[in-house]
Amino acid sequence: MIISLGADHGGFELKNRLSEFLRSEGHEVIDNGTNSPDSVDYPDFAKPVAHDILEKRADFGVLVCGSGIGISIAANRYRGIRAALVTSADYARLSRQHNNANIITFGGRFTSFDDAKEWLKIFLSTDFEGGRHERRVSKLDELN
Ligand code: RB5
Prior knowledge:
Ribose 5-phosphate Isomerase B, Chain: A, 6 helices, 5 strands, globular, binds D-ribose
């Protein structure tokens, strides 16, 4: 798969480790930065990842900021993006089965690499269940 990644200064270390992991698993990675501890603004990194997905250059996205909250809010401003801040294996699974999430988000200051790696593997290997969830997910894009 092709996975688009982005992070701010609070998440770039975890993002870089996840990028290496994804490559080692045979995925293609689009790295939208940041790549240093210099302070940056998380919306600037949610934007290219959202565009990569909406314009079909990537299958899924991974976003990381310090808490995971700001970069989730930013990504979810884009119609068609369903970014899920994942804090457990169950959340990783449910975000795909019920919400058809297309971006997984982590809090780089609160999530270990081992947990993030496990949850990312679950996220990428779990299908959307459709059915009653299809109707609900469709309504997301009609909200105004
Ligand atoms: C940056 O210090 C921090 O505010 C940011 O990474 C994120 O946690 C915001 O939600």
